[in-house]
Design goal:
Elements (H helix, E strand, L loop, with lengths): L2 E9 L4 E9 L2 E6 L6 E4 L4 E4 L1 E6 L15 H10 L2 E9 L6 H12 L6 E2 L2 E3 L5 H13 L4 E5 L9 H14 L2 E5 L3 H13 L6 H6 L2 H17 L4 E3 L5 H12 L4 E5 L1 H5 L24 H13 L2 E4 L35 H10 L6 H15 L17 E11 L18 E11 L2 E5 L2 E2 L40
Parallel strand pairs: 1-4, 1-5, 6-7, 7-8, 7-9, 9-10, 10-11, 11-12, 12-13, 13-14
Antiparallel strand pairs: 1-2, 2-3, 5-15, 15-16, 16-17, 17-18
Helix pairs in contact: 3-4, 7-8, 8-10
The structure holds N-(aminocarbonyl)-beta-alanine and zinc ion (2 copies).
């Protein structure tokens, strides 16, 4: 064995136990008492957890209107590693007029040589041409990009219901997972136009223009479309009890519907949008942050298993002219980039408030932060767990360490953190990726470029029965082969 992590408390998505963990050739080769090796890491008093998998973050990504995120694969991956992650899955965003493979090549060129941890991409599909559907999405899948994301809002990104069905069907026929940003574009436009016309342009009106009804309608429609073709679907960044309830109900009925929520919906509220001047812009994301009863409801859904993944939705736009204020200090809420940073704080916040706060178990924390993403995104059991044969992607946590969050303490390229001043207890102190140390005692010790692209397999939908849609009887010969 090359390395042994000694005397720690190991936790997986199902079990917590005392054991040493042995590593050889970048993989876990032993879980037992009293192991020894040339290099020993003392984890006395620490938790030995699977490295986190950050499954929703925007890195080196242009928005449809041309704005570039502040983080690239170097800073983004470093920030992720400091937050206890050993793998992340940012988006490769196809914009209209771009080919799918051209998009993947572009993101390869951005990620290669830059990332300190392993990575994959979810492919954003904004231009589902015939060629994209019949040739390029299958090729993307064969290349190990096994999740496709679509938008139901944003004028330059959104697809219509028929295109959505096309993508769901193609994804299903290959075993890929479709992800959706579900908000009703018409409702948002209708309210926004009226607010701006009447001079209500401050950041606080962003929340008013994205009501819960807009999310609920779109989630309901997205689930209906996915169930119609019996395709798996993951609703990203669910922000309302109404939306979470729809996900929960569909899951109860046996549909392959999955949900994700994010720290901002548990830890921030629309009062943050009311901060003086343009400060509120720092807290603008879509869907928007809501209120305290919503936070409580989302915690309950997290406890009850409605959400399979908990992701940061790190969308880093600085609070300056390069980002949020690119249209100047008088910008209307419609002109301010949506999104906020949080890559490094996702897991510490969940640990502090969730595990230490007694809301979720340590095993739920592991499932939400790593294991479920590994399964849903086709990386399990290579990643997301501590088991013989798995990659030695491990985060060692000090469950007692308390820090106050500051922007200076972050390792991303941002000039603010929305969680400034928050006291957080429980931090990752050492992070290994394939047995190589990335973070050691709070210091970065890995070189950018060591991270590898992970060609992902079919997601694992074990336990979700298929349903029959009579209209899609193969005898009707719709062209697409419907996988069992
Ligand atoms: O406001 C957000 N969430 N921005 C990032 C893009 C997205 O919709 O996920
Ligand atoms: Zn989104
Ligand atoms: Zn996002």
């Amino acid at each position: 064995m090359d390395i042994v992590i000694k005397n720690g408390t190991v936790a997986t998505a199902s079990d917590t136990f005392r054991a040493d963990v042995g590593i050889a050739g970048g993989r876990i080769t032993a879980i037992a008492d009293d192991l020894s090796a040339a290099r020993e890491i003392d984890a006395t008093g620490k938790l030995v957890l699977p490295g986190g998998i950050e499954a929703h973050c925007h890195i080196a990504q242009e928005s449809a209107t041309g704005g570039m995120t502040a983080d690239d694969y170097r800073s983004g991956s470093i920030s992720a590693a400091f937050g206890g992650n050993s793998c992340f899955i940012p988006f490769a965003a196809q914009h209209r007029g771009m080919g799918v493979l051209e998009t993947l090549d572009l993101y390869d060129s951005r990620a290669q040589g830059a990332s300190v941890i392993d990575y994959g991409y979810h492919l954003i599909v904004a231009d589902p041409t015939e060629k994209a559907l019949t040739e390029e999405l299958p090729q993307a899948f064969a290349r190990g990009v096994t999740s496709f994301k679509v938008f139901m809002t944003y004028d330059l990104m959104k697809i219509d219901d028929s295109q959505f069905l096309d993508i769901l069907s193609v994804a299903k026929s290959h075993g890929a997972l479709t992800m959706v940003h579900a908000e009703n574009s018409g409702i948002i436009k209708w309210i926004s136009d009226r607010l701006v016309a009447s001079g209500h342009t401050a950041p606080r009106y962003h929340a008013i223009s994205h009501p819960a009804a807009a999310e609920a309608e779109a989630i309901n429609r997205a689930i209906t479309l996915a169930r119609f073709v019996d395709a798996p679907l993951l609703i990203v960044h669910v922000s309302t009890p109404e939306g979470a309830g729809l996900v929960a109900q569909a899951r109860l009925e046996g549909a392959k519907i999955f949900g994700e929520t994010c720290p901002q919906y548990l830890f921030l509220t629309k009062d943050d949008l009311d901060r003086p001047g343009m400060e509120g812009a720092k807290f603008m994301c879509s869907p928007p942050v809501r209120d305290t009863p919503t936070q409580e409801a989302l915690w309950r859904h997290l406890q009850a298993g409605t959400f399979s993944v908990f992701s940061s939705d790190h969308a880093p736009y600085r609070f300056d002219a390069s980002g949020k204020l690119s249209k100047g200090p008088e910008a209307t809420f419609k002109q301010i980039a949506n999104g906020m940073p949080g890559l490094a704080l996702r897991l510490p916040l969940l640990f502090s408030e969730g595990v230490r706060g007694g809301r979720i178990t340590l095993n739920q924390f592991v499932a939400l932060g790593a294991t479920n993403a590994a399964k849903l995104y086709g990386m399990h059991p290579q990643k997301g767990t501590i088991a013989i044969g798995a990659d030695a992607d491990i985060a060692i946590w000090d469950p007692e360490e308390t820090r106050t969050v500051t922007v200076e303490g972050q390792h991303d390229n941002m000039d603010y953190t929305p969680f400034e001043g928050r006291q957080v207890t429980g931090w990752p102190v050492t992070v290994l990726s394939r047995g190589e140390t990335v973070i050691d005692g709070g210091e970065l010790v890995a070189e950018p470029g060591r991270g590898r692209f992970v060609a992902r397999a079919r997601p694992d939908f074990t336990g979700y029965p298929g349903t029959r849609t009579p209209e899609l009887d193969p005898a009707w010969n719709f062209g697409a082969e419907i996988a069992p």
